[in-house]
Design brief:
Elements lengths: L2 E6 L3 H12 L4 E7 L2 H11 L3 E4 L8 H11 L4 E6 L4 H9 L4 E4 L4 H12 L4 E2 L4 H5 L23 H11 L4 H8 L3 H15 L4 H11 L6
Parallel strand pairs: 1-2, 1-3, 3-4, 4-5, 5-6
Length: 220
């Protein structure tokens, strides 16, 4: 198995460093480089990589707009953000643009390699240091008449599971969710397991990020 990678960054030193790292991995093939979002969109269509490592702050077109266009034009290509920005004002729009994950440039090389391999398999990736910035708080306070927009597989969730997912997305533990909803912690655990099963996800972080993407406004 060889994973074809397109590297997108406007800093030449960063490009050289990551390119060298990628060349050391026997299962990676760097098929091209781009220096801005517009170039990334064009090269994605031309080269059809499996994974795009996408910077965010770039000239001509930023990484978020580029990721949106790539998701629309080439939905099979997985975009993995690799940036220095760890704030919610960058994380949430990036995740809502359709990317497979969000990594920071200070990530350990081995962790980046594993994130690329996991993203290739379709698993959402999230740098461990940005969990707090993403989850606290990410959605409005819970209210009985407020639901996460039901899109895609979220339509299969029950009203109670939607409540649990919304609180889970705010980074709450099972115990905290149980206290908020006035139910047993064991009941919450059952709901979380059901949510993961229905959404075809493996952990709570993936479920939270799925919800972030589902919160993207309709583009009418």
């Amino acid at each position: 198995m060889t994973i074809k990678i397109l590297l997108v960054d406007d800093h030449q030193i960063v490009l050289k460093g990551i390119s060298f790292f990628l060349s050391m991995q026997s299962d990676f093939e760097l098929v091209g480089e781009a220096h801005n979002g517009k170039e990334a969109v064009l090269k994605a269509a031309e080269l059809q990589p499996d994974i795009i490592l996408m910077d965010l702050n770039m000239p001509v077109m930023d990484g978020i707009e580029a990721s949106q266009l790539i998701a629309q034009q080439n939905p099979d290509i997985k975009v993995l953000v690799l940036t220095s920005f760890s704030d919610r004002s960058h994380i949430i729009p990036a995740m809502q643009s359709g990317v497979i994950g969000y990594m920071l440039k200070d990530v350990e090389p081995d962790q980046l390699a594993e994130a690329i391999r996991s993203a290739y398999k379709g698993n959402i990736q999230l740098h461990p240091d940005i969990s707090g910035a993403l989850f606290s708080p990410m959605v409005p306070e819970f209210a009985p008449d407020r639901e996460i927009p039901k899109r895609g597989l979220i339509e299969s969730l029950t009203p109670r599971e939607l409540e649990v997912l919304q609180l889970l997305t705010r980074g709450m533990s099972n115990r905290e969710i149980a206290h908020t909803l006035t139910v047993a912690e064991k009941t919450v655990k059952t709901h979380v397991s059901s949510i993961l099963s229905k959404l075809h996800l493996s952990d709570r972080t993936q479920a939270a990020l799925y919800a972030v993407q589902a919160l993207k406004p309709n583009e009418n």
